[in-house]
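quick one, 62 residues, struct below
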Amino acid sequence: MDLSKFETMDTVMLMSIVNMKIRDEFNTLDDLVKFFDIDREQLIAKLATAGFDFLPEVQQFR
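---
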């Protein structure tokens, strides 16, 4: 799944995909955003609109 258009994605689905990709394909959120060439802060802000916070100690949005 290409995350380059994350701004238009359903927020709950986006959170699920991002968490899965960090768990299965990338070690960190930074690796994921670098790979997809997306803005880290914009991604965090988009997910925050649905109440999700990034927890760096577990590398997940919850």
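The CA atoms of residues 10 and 22 lie 18 Å apart.
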